[in-house]
Amino acid sequence: MHLTNDQLNEYLDKATHERAQIESHLDSCDECAARLSTLQNLFAELDSLPELELTRDLAARFTPRPSLPAQLPKFLTLTVSLQAAVALTAIIIAMPFIVQLIPVLEISSLSNVFIQLQTQWTTWLDMLSQVQFPTLPTFTFEISSIYLMSALVGVFMLWLVGNGLLLRNQIK
Amino acid sequence: MTYFFPATFSLPLLYYTLVMTTPTDRDLILRACRGDADSAEAFGELVTRYQTSVFNVCYRILHERGEAEDLAQEVFIRAYDRIHTFDIEREFGPWIRRVAANLCLNHLESQKVTTELDDERDADHAQLPEAAQEVRERSEQIRKALVSLPINYRLVIELRHYQELTYDEIAVELNIPLSDVKSHLFRARKVLAEKLHASD
Ligand SMILES: [Zn+2]
Questions:
Q1: Which one of A113, A172, B140, B189 is at 20 to 30 Å from B180 when CA atoms are compared?
Q2: Is the pTM of this model over 0.80?
């Protein structure tokens, strides 16, 4: 007994419970195997049909603008501004110390520019310290690169932990 | 772009620019459901994502470009009107393609006239290399064979081969018995195979 047309169709549609029997018949019967391959060819031909492109944009009816603007939640805009402000302040404060290290590189023209910048920054910082917090105790220790590095590392760790906390609910 | 500078300081912002600014279908559907000014825009983005596949459903069934484009537009207009009834747990793509197939069926049944068939052979046809021309001609033969089928047969082929629905799903979708799904599908394949291999 050969396989029925229905059996072959259901076999290719993976909608049969008699897969094993069908396969063992196909192994031993060239005629049914040929019928199956004809059907498989048809499947392949149907699959090969390419998708065509539209000649007009169906979305135009719904969207006057071509793309969606990025929308940020309010809490994020706030934290981002805060983070940016803190980072900028950190850079401003760190600048004179960084500038002190740079002349060591002995690029005369550049270091001249940096020295000018440094003088400006230090005078500006002096002015600031005179105006603000006059009761603030003065540092008794020299600012060494060790302190600077540990401060930077500390700030970086804080930044990392802060971001981790913020992202905690976003990443599932 | 306005967030570029602060983005260098913020992982959450980077995350949002990379992930959240490409909203999921689900996000877009929820926004489209709200019924505010942003709704149409969110739905428009969904249309952008699915218009080609929806148009191709219509084109395979109708084989007439203008009509297929009109119907694809109609599919999205109707979907937008009843977007609030859409079950958010389902996938939008498969759903909208099934809607398209059904709309084409209704359209053909209401017409009951054979439309002038479209030839995708257009002006630039002659400029294609020989191999590409052969592929194109074969596609055209397949499309013509498809559209020569009775409407019911065409629909089961579309749903089984192009939308990959199971027999049971097709039965539900077209509201016909399972036995009809099988007989339509198997006969349709027989007819297609005869047509396509006769023209070899
Ligand atoms: Zn056999």
A1: B140
A2: no
